[in-house]
Amino acid sequence: MLYGAPDGDGVYSKIINVYIIVNKRPDVLIVGGGVSGLAAAVSAAGIGCQVLLIEKELQLGGMFCKGLGFPICGLFGMEDGPPKNTLNSGLAAEFYHHICEKQNNPLMRLGRVWICKYSPNEAVQFFESKIDKAGHIYSLKNSVLHSIEIENERIKVVQLLLRGALVSIRPKVVIECSGNGALLACCPDFSLLPDNKAKSLACVLIKLDQIETDDTMLPVRVPYILRKASQEGIVPLSLGFTTYMPLEKPGQGVLKLSVLPDISLAEQNAFFEKIVNTVLDLLQQEIPSLARARIIEKSSGLLQRVGLRGHGQYILNKDDVLNARKFDGNGIKCAWPIEYWDPEKGPQYHYLDKGEFFEIPLTCLMSKSIKNLFFSGRCISATEQAISAARVMGTCISLGEAAGILAANKDYE
Ligand SMILES: Cc1cc2nc3c(=O)[nH]c(=O)nc-3n(C[C@H](O)[C@H](O)[C@H](O)COP(=O)(O)OP(=O)(O)OC[C@H]3O[C@@H](n4cnc5c(N)ncnc54)[C@H](O)[C@@H]3O)c2cc1C
């Protein structure tokens, strides 16, 4: 257990019959248990820090578990033949050997890049077993960041909503790994990147069953039909950028419906119901192999590709990515192309040259204005174009690992 016996002024919170003393200061508080938060927790604890990881859902993993069969991208460089090693060493390499290689998930080529399938459950177990081994990590699921207090350019107090109760934590260092920028949203405006309003298309995922298995042209037919319907004004323009991916299980596939990113939470349910039904009706009328298809799973809510990002000591930009810029050699390597989902033109890919990679300097993980704040995963200091390359899961593992090391080595006072 992370915390010791209660002090005189201890604050208690009852969670599943366990009293956690929260007024003792965790060395590192991690907001968000997605892939970057998990990696950050493992690396910070590995250096001996006491880590508190908070996750608003009942399950750890974030987008890692919500992709309904998407592969992990960003682990490898742009090579002609199957790469032998991952681009970054450390946790990313371990992850590849334990989850992809040992589980017989072969590398696959997607255009000019290499990707790998993985099982979300095994992937989360990989991190959970490391968390168990590290021994200094306390993870709180179903706990939502509520607010923060900043004093003398430091985050002094973080308040959490823990099963309806408000609890105050006084962490020494905080890592923002919420993907959407939940912690940054509580910070003063100057802590955020100036151009923070994401334009990238968001999406809704729908898993289908009972598809006729001999139709190998579905990845072409689905976008064609929806593109035509959007040009004729039958469905919104963004739905014309919908894609389809067959799954390994015969008769199953995933529709990735593209939607504008700014639908309010209040509107989302009605909106989903409407577009999902419209799209499925239309596809079933036009494509015989989908006539009997039925929905077996949907993503919960709108999946945003880009969220709020922090204003770091450096802001990674499009030129850095496309010119394969290297900084001091201590950063995180990435060779994934800029994959920008333009609301009017659809996905726009900008590749690096063969064999090249760019570096994400550690200064993109360090807040410019708040001394004890680091960013990781989708929240790093990068323009929308640059984050459209750096946000892939393979890179997020290494970003998280690096943020954990930075936080663990931070001189606290
Ligand atoms: C539609 C879509 C398709 C994608 N496809 C691929 C793909 O095929 N391959 C690939 O490699 N990458 C893909 N990505 C990118 C990748 O999945 C994400 O960028 C990456 O997983 C981000 O990891 P993260 O840890 O930064 O954030 P997330 O995975 O978003 O994790 C953040 C965590 O923080 C939690 N959280 C949020 N707010 C709070 C709060 N207030 N309090 C407490 N916890 C909170 C969330 O519940 C979540 O668990 C895709 C992304 C999208 C949106």
Overall description:
The protein has 413 residues and is of the alpha+beta class. It has two domains: 1-198 and 307-413, FAD/NAD(P)-binding domain (3-Layer(bba) Sandwich), CATH 3.50.50; 202-298, Alpha-Beta Plaits (2-Layer Sandwich), CATH 3.30.70. Helices cover 25% and strands 24% of the residues. The protein has helices spanning 35-46, 91-101, 120-134, 218-231, 265-286, 318-322, 384-390, 393-408, and strands at 12-15, 18-21, 28-31, 51-54, 107-110, 113-116, 137-140, 143-151, 154-162, 165-169, 173-176, 202-209, 243-246, 253-259, 294-298, 332-334, 338-342, 346-350, 358-360, 373-375. The protein is globular, with a radius of gyration of 22 Å. Mean pLDDT is 89; it is low at 1-21. The protein binds flavin-adenine dinucleotide. Residues 31-37, 54-57, 62-64, 67, 70-74, 144-145, 177-180, 182, 203, 303, 305, 377-378, 391-394, 396 line the site of flavin-adenine dinucleotide. Flavin-adenine dinucleotide (FAD) is lined by residues 31-37, 54-57, 62-64, 67, 70-74, 144-145, 177-180, 182, 203, 303, 305, 377-378, 391-394, 396.
